[in-house]
Amino acid sequence: MAVTNDLLTDRRVMRHAETLREAGCEVECIGKRELGVKARRGWRFYAEYNVRLMLRLLRTKADIVWANDTDTLAACTVAAKLKGKKLVMDAHELFPEVPELIGRERVKRVWEWIERMMMPRCDALLTVCQSIADYYKERYGVEMVVVRNVRRVESGERRVESGERRVENGELRMLLYQGAVNKGRGVDWAIDALEWLEDCRLVVAGGGDLLEEMKAYAVKKPWAERIAFMGRLMPEELEGLTRKADVGLVMLEDMGLSYHFALPNRIGDFVAAGVPMVVSDLPEMSRVVREFGVGEVIESGERRVESGERRVESGEWRAESGERRARALAEAVRRVLAREWTEKDFEAARRDMDWNKEKEKLLGIVERFSRPEGRDTEQGN
Q1: In the predicted model, is pLDDT for residue 161 greater than 80?
Q2: Are residue 336 and residue 236 in the same domain, yes or no?
Q3: DSSP letters for 9-68
Q4: pLDDT by residue (tens digit) across 42-76?
C-alpha cells in the first residue's frame, strides 16, 4: 500500500491495512518517510516519490499493488504491470479538483492524464463516497466500490454526556476541529465564530500548510485564550479528545469538486463518539446530518462554484463573506448546544456508519483476487 503522506496520521490507510492483516494478509505500507523522499513539495516531490516508489515496488514481493490516490498511481501502475500483479487504486478524493490546483490548469491536466491513462488499467477501484464514484463513472467509464472512511463502533461504547464534558473543560463548551489545517477548511471561520460564543472554546487538532498562519490569526483575537492548537495527534489520542467534545466542526468551502463531494472521516468519528456536528451545506456531509439528525447544517445560501472559478475577487469581499460565515457557524453551534443529546440520537447513524459493515466490501476485493479464474463460487464448481 503506497501513500504520499505520513503513515502515522493516515487513518484510512492504516484502517485498511489492519483489516487486511486481521483477514490473514501480509501488508506493507510505504509512505514518504519509508522512501526517504527529500524534496518537500511541488513537482520535484512527486517526481522523486514516484521514482523511488517504483524502484521499491519492483524489488518487493507482492500479489497486489495498492495505490492510494492519484499521486501514487503512476509508479504503482508501472510496477504492477511489469510484474504481472493485481493493481488496486483507492481514491480518497477527486485529486485533480483539490483547491490547491484551482487556476493551475497545466498541473491539473497532468493529473487528469494520469487518471485517464491508468485508472482503466486497475483491477479494482474504490473510493470514499457515492458522489465521487459517480463522477469517475461518468468521466472514465470505470466502476468503483464505495468504502466509507468510518470508525469501528465498539459494543458498549457510549457518548460522554454534556455535563461531564463541561466539568472537565472548566465549564466552557468544547468545539472541536480535527483534520488538516489547509486551504478552505474553515478554521478561520471557527476562530471568528468565538466572538458570538462566549461560553465556548475551540480546540484544533491537526497540522497542515496553514497551521502557523492560523495560529498567528488566532493570537490577534481578544478571545485568543479560548483557542488551543494541539497539532497532529496519534489516533488513540484523537479518539479520546473527540469523545470530550460538545460539538464537532466539519466545515469546507465549496472550492472545487473535491471539497464539494467530500465525506471527511471525522464525520464517522463524531458519529461513533456520539458528538453532534455542525457541517457545511455540501452534498455528502449534509446528507448524513439531515438523514440521521445528528447535528446542524450551515445554511450559507451561496451557490456552488465550478472548479477553476475564482471565488474571491477582492480582499474586501473576503472579509465580508468571512464575517457572514462566522455568524452562520455561531448560530448553528447555538442550535446544537440548545438541545439535550442522548445515546438514542446516534443509534441509526452508528448502525449505518460502522467499519464492521464497510470492511466487508474491502475484503471482497481481495477475496475476488484469490479465487481461481472462472470459478463459480455460488455453485461451488
Answers
A1: no
A2: yes
A3: G-HHHHHHHHHHHHTT-----B-HHHHT----SHHHHHHHHHHHHHHHHHHS--SEEEEE
A4: 889 999 999 999 999 999 999 999 999 999 999 99
CATH number at residue 35: 3.40.50.2000
- Residue ranges making up the domain that contains 44: 7-150+354-370
Residues in the chain: 381
Q: Whole-prediction pTM value? A: 0.83
Q: What is the DSSP letter of 145?
A: E
Distances (CA, A) of 159 to 164, 170, 235, 288: 10, 19, 18, 18
Measured CA angle at 91 (ends 107, 209), to 5 deg: 55
Rg over CA atoms, the chain: 21
Residue 54 identity (one-letter amino acid): M
Are 337 and 247 in a shared domain? yes
- Residues 142, 11 share a domain: yes
| Rounded Cα distance, 191 and 215, in Å | 10
Identify the pLDDT of residue 256. 84
* DSSP label at residue 7: G
